[in-house]
Design goal:
Helices cover about 40% and strands about 20% of the residues. The chain has about 425 residues and is an alpha/beta fold.
Amino acid sequence: MEFWSDAERHLVRYSGAGTFTPEIIERAEGSFVFTADGRRVLDFTSGQMSAILGHSHPAVVATVQRQVATLDHLFSGMLSRPVVDLARRLAESLPEPLSKVLLLTTGAESNEAAIRMAKLVTGRHEIVSFGRSWHGMTQAAASATYSSGRKGYGPAAPGNFAIPTPNAYRPDFTDANGELDWRRQLEFSFELFDAQSVGSLAACIVEPILSSGGVLDLPPGYLAALRDKCHERGGLLILDEAQTGLCRTGDWYAFQRDGVVPDLLTLSKTLGAGLPLAAVVTSPEIEQTAHDRGFLFFTTHVSDPLVAAVGNTVLDVLTGERLDDQARKLGEHLSAGLLELKDSHAVIGDVRGRGLLVGLELVLDRQTKQPADELGAAVTRRCLELGLHMNVVQLPGMGGVFRIAPALTSTAAELDLGLEILDQAIGDVAPRFI
């Protein structure tokens, strides 16, 4: 077919595995994408974990049509009403002192800006992140990313350190009951950091729920203890809420569960509901110090009015439809359904997550927790054949972990359809592996 021959001839393969989903997508609406051959596929990842309002939401479509016809892009030093309105509304949705906002495009860019600001404000350069982290593909963000993509590109930025990721399903430090002892793990982490550090910690950057790391929710209490470790050493706490921010977990922000306010917060994916919009939010004190020291992050699409207008519409819909409550209720429905599947399929080792960000880990043996990478890939292919798009994370030492992140506008019936297809796909494929 000409489409695929052109794709093979002209596209750079950028996923690492070098493969694309073997479907031509013609359009998308709500919770579904539609292929060139007329198939309807339920999207259980809401795009790249971004389209929290579903695809082609009418309010977003109307905003884009109106805004692109009036004010789309400006010189980066100019301001428009959508930008200032969005900054104010984001500040109003957050606890004090988070009230100063920088609007950018992608998650990597927002993490880049946050790390750059932390280094400038503290006068330090060391960055701590998790060993299964993913913060982006630009230089500082990629240097703080350890889950994949580090080999073959030369030196990372100096001063980057990985610490062990808390994983309750596969604990490395255990208590007398065999459960994860995250306090001892955290103490070990910073003993190891202190042994290597030159005393120049600028920031710790973490996700409240590691998504690409296998949908690993930080244990209650961990975030506060990490913040204290960071502050004791003169560093700032950066929370990357690219996937957890704006109602996906059932709270407006995942950090609210822990009562921990970060020094810098980064938002992206969910803020634009599928369009390229990201933000860094910090305190007036940190912003003032950064400004006094000449903070520079002047990019082509900083403070763009088109996507800022979309961000305002996203906030309108989230608030008007109380999608935080909906995400919580639908998340309970989804998790209950996945736990029922676990009772039916021995290859399901664990179900975890919060709200509508849920992980399902496949294993070949529940006792040994033997990873099931090939099984995960096979189930993914079978799901697509049956009309369900799934995303499976495959990292060394872990099984295939499905990241399930439906749109917040999904219906219970759509979730049930996804569970039904997943049930059939596992049933069809698993006997070949066990």
